Each structure stands twice: as structure tokens, then as C-alpha cells.
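Need the bound structure for 2-acetamido-2-deoxy-beta-D-glucopyranose, inputs here:
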Amino acid sequence: MYSSKVSNNKNQCSNGVKNIIMIISFILIIYLMCFNFSIPNTKSLHTSVTLQNDSSSSSLSLSSDTNLEHIVFGIASNENAWSARKELVKMWWKPGRNMRGCVFLEKMPPNYTNNANDSSLPPICISGDTSRFKYTFRGGTPSAIRVARVVTETVALNHSNVRWYVFGDDDTVFFTENLLKTLSKYDHGLWYYIGSNSEHFLMNKAFSYEMAFGGAGIAISSPLAKVLGTVFDACIERYPHLFGSDARIYSCLAELGVGLTHEPGFHQLDVRGNMFGVLAAHTLRPLVSLHHLEMNDPIFPNMTKMKSLEHLYDAAKYDPHRILQQTVCYDRWFTWTVSVSWGYAVQVFSYNIFLPDALRIQESYFPWQTSDLARHYDFDTRPYEPDPCKRQLVYFLHNVSTGIKGQIKTIYRKKTPENCTITMVSPRRLEEIRVVSQKLEIDRKRLLSPRRQCCDVLSSTSRNVMDVAIRECKEDELIFIHP
Ligand SMILES: *[C@@H]1O[C@H](CO)[C@@H](O)[C@H](O)[C@H]1NC(C)=O
Ligand SMILES: *[C@@H]1O[C@H](CO)[C@@H](O)[C@H](O)[C@H]1NC(C)=O
Ligand SMILES: *[C@@H]1O[C@H](CO)[C@@H](O)[C@H](O)[C@H]1NC(C)=O
Ligand SMILES: *[C@@H]1O[C@H](CO)[C@@H](O)[C@H](O)[C@H]1NC(C)=O
Ligand SMILES: *[C@@H]1O[C@H](CO)[C@@H](O)[C@H](O)[C@H]1NC(C)=O
Ligand SMILES: *[C@@H]1O[C@H](CO)[C@@H](O)[C@H](O)[C@H]1NC(C)=O
Ligand SMILES: *[C@@H]1O[C@H](CO)[C@@H](O)[C@H](O)[C@H]1NC(C)=O
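Answer from helper R.:
Posting the output first, comments after.
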């Protein structure tokens, strides 16, 4: 019995080898055919070249030269909100960079001149009339149709040389360098619908895990947006019962057979109150967008919402790709855990916590809704310690500067005074954390396969100061609690 089984296996083996050889030759033939026939077509040529030389060190990329001039933005706002919300748009709309696109309002605000010469803001476009479309969602706002049609109307601006259309709300702020980096992963000549869903379990359940939530921003490649533009009005007739604009865009793209490409750097931020936990445990992908900043606490304590957002952008100016990127190291001497969320905050735990736990999102916020289920988020969490004397210490960004040899130096300071006893081994005596790092360059390899960096707690220059250096990890380096 046993031996017959073995010989059987042998037979299968040699059959398997034959099959594999046949498959390989088949692939080779197809490949040669494609390569020969695709030369006149420049688009396929690009693809073939990448296939032909797909060495990982190759810097070949399809759209690495994508820049702001290739993007057209469609921002949805309204007459009443615009005068306040334009301050948020000013945070990321870059004057003098030939940025293209419009902010769409239902009508011009009174006493407002559409200053076409003001390059610090996008021009105002007046949305087309949508009264012919039915809207039947109870308690919803029919303006969802106007906002959804921002897609059509942005494409209809007829800009040339467009690679991506990017849509957002007036309270979406983008980190444009990271938006470009993220989009450059994809071939803009193909159909892409890129974004992310909500952090909130109920929101995703109610809408869809496959829907790009509008507040987080939605990127649609040019050829797809053009097709979507031509079918959109006919399509949304079928969805009067939906609540929002993003659900309409999602539905019409689904009808075109296109699914969502998830990019976790886009943030809908459906959390309320203190967003600290979410910001301090950012994904390894670059930060593309933030949302709902106006309805939540300022992201830095002791600062206004606007000022604190400016503060974050200050750091991002020095090192856009590193902003919020989290690095963890362990202090051997005192057994502390140090977690740097670059450009934002440093957390110091007076004990060692395992790396996977340090990477979880602390529940610093409160839920968007009050039901029991509303406390469920679609990410990993770690509880918020109510006792401030047991909670980890948090140091917030104080300032950024360029140091020696192009190093970037960020200083973090404690913002919230508390009355806790200070022991010899407590990090509580630390008043300031200084972090040095090199500007983070993301090449194609890093973009496609990101890896967390490492850090070291340096021997300190003062009792009240901790010095930390961020660097690339060694090939086989592990980030762990040293015994
Ligand atoms: C493939 O890439 C390698 C390394 O970048 C380069 O040396 C080689 O010339 C390339 N081959 C072709 C056919 O482009
Ligand atoms: C427009 O501006 C004028 C002069 O500044 C002012 O008298 C008027 O009330 C303003 N109208 C509105 C609607 O704000
Ligand atoms: C914009 O600039 C042009 C040329 O410099 C000028 O003629 C025009 O009056 C300006 N428009 C506004 C609204 O300032
Ligand atoms: C854009 O081009 C289309 C077709 O060429 C034309 O019908 C439309 O009026 C143009 N829109 C604008 C704003 O120029
Ligand atoms: C940053 O803050 C430190 C401490 O307050 C100060 O000494 C330094 O001059 C500041 N640097 C910049 C560039 O503001
Ligand atoms: C808060 O800000 C005020 C004014 O800038 C400053 O005087 C105060 O020291 C700050 N408080 C803390 C705890 O940083
Ligand atoms: C700390 O304790 C002192 C004295 O008991 C008190 O006056 C002060 O308000 C306390 N500060 C905080 C932040 O609890």
C-alpha cells in the first residue's frame, strides 16, 4: 500500500513538472507576443518595459513624475460654510503652484468677489441646477446630489493633461506631497478609484466597506473620471434613496464594474473629541488627508484648531513623508518604551510594552454616536487609562529645525500639567524630548513595500531631556524589549 502510494506520488510529480514546463512555455509565448505587438502603443510599451526589467532596485515607475499640475481638484462646499471653511483649504492649497480645480458652491456668497487672482484659494464654480433629480432619503439633504455632481462638473472644466481628479469636502485637508506619492504608485492611464472607508464600524456597515468616504478624499484616474462623467447623470437617477454624495459616486462606479483601491493614508476621521490615538498610530503609508478637524478638539493642546493644524503643517514642510510616522524604541536602562509619532507627539511609557501593543490606537476619542455598537471601530485599539498618573506621558511638537548635516530636529514638550509623584525611575522628570532624523525619501521600493524605521534612545545630555535618533533599521533588525 505504502509503496504504491509513493510511486503514485512520483508519477504525479513528473506530471507536475511537465505541466509546469508547459505553463512556463505558454507564458513565454504570450509574453513574447504581447511584447512584439504592443510596440506601437505607447501605454502598453510602458508596461512591457516594466515587466521586462522588474528588478526591485529599478527606479522605473509609470507615473513618478506626477505632480500637482497633473491633478484637478473638485472641492464641495456651500455658500454658508465657505467663508469659514476656506481657511482650511488655504492650509493645503499652494499658491503659485498652478493648482487646478474649483470649489463648488450653490451660489455666490453675498459681498464675495470671486477673486480669480487670489492663488491662495481655488476659484469658485457655481454648481449646476439639480432640481430635476429626485432625492428621497428621509432626513437627508438633497444637496448630496449637487455635491455628487462635482465629479461631472470638475471633469467638464475640460482641463488638459490631467492624470487624476481628486475630490474632497471643504473640511478635508490634503498633504499634497503624500497625495502625489500615493497616486504615483498607480498607472493613471488605467481605471482607478482610490480612497478609504470610515474608521467607524457602523458607518462602514451602513454605507459600504468598498465605498471611498468623501470626507477622506477620493482620487479617480482621468480615463475613469471621463467615462464616469458621461454616465453619471443617468446613473444617479437610479439612486434617489441614498443618503450622501459619496454613496452615489460609489454606486455609479460599481455599475461601471470598478472597485475601490484602499489607501489608508486617506482619513475620514469619524471619531469625536480627542483624536490623539488615531493620529499617533498612523499607518506606514504616507498621510494623505485629514477630515473633521473643525468638529473635534484641537490636535495640539493649548492651541486653537487652526493654529494646531498650521503647527502640523509646519513639521510636514520639513519632512512631508515622515509626518505622523511612528517609530518605537526601548530605553534599556530605565525600561521605558518610547514611541515617536513624528512631527506630532512622543509618548513615553514608564514600563515596557510590546511593540504590537504600542502600535494600537489608544481610545482617546469618544464615539461618533451613542449606541453600544457605536463604540466599535475598524482598527486595533488600546484602552485609554483614566488616571493621568498611570497614563503614558505625552510630549507634543514644540518646534522643528534643520540641524547639522541636513538632519531634522524636532522638539516635543509636555503640555498638560498634572500632580503625580515623581520617582527616581519615572520619566516624569523629562520636560523635553529631542528627536533627530533624516528627511524621509520614499523611492518606489519603499512606496510599494514600506518598512517602519528604528530609533535609539541616546545617552542624555541633561536630566530633563531625552534625546532620540531615528534611522533606518538594519536588514535583520528587530524592534523588541531588551531583556
Ligand atoms: C535592467 O536593469 C538593470 C539594473 O537597473 C540594468 O543594468 C539593465 O541594463 C536593465 N536592462 C534592460 C534591458 O533595460
Ligand atoms: C454687503 O456689504 C455692504 C457694504 O459693506 C453692507 O452694507 C451689506 O449689508 C452687505 N450685505 C450682506 C448681505 O452682507
Ligand atoms: C486680476 O488681474 C488682472 C490682470 O492683472 C486684472 O486686470 C484684474 O482686474 C484682476 N481681477 C481681480 C478680481 O482682482
Ligand atoms: C468642455 O468640452 C465639451 C465638449 O468638447 C463642451 O461641450 C463643453 O461646453 C466644454 N466645457 C467647458 C466648460 O468649456
Ligand atoms: C525651538 O525651541 C527651543 C526650545 O524652546 C529653542 O531653543 C529653539 O531656538 C527653537 N528653535 C526654533 C527654530 O524655533
Ligand atoms: C498655553 O499657552 C499660553 C499662551 O501661549 C502659555 O502662556 C501657557 O504657558 C501654555 N500652557 C501650557 C501648559 O503649555
Ligand atoms: C495640583 O495640586 C495643587 C495643590 O494641591 C493644586 O492647587 C493644583 O490645582 C493641582 N493641579 C492640577 C493640574 O491638578
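Comments: The pocket of 2-acetamido-2-deoxy-beta-D-glucopyranose (ligand 5) is lined by residues 398-399, 401, 411 (CB under 6 Å). Residues 1-14, 26-62 have pLDDT under 50 and may be disordered.
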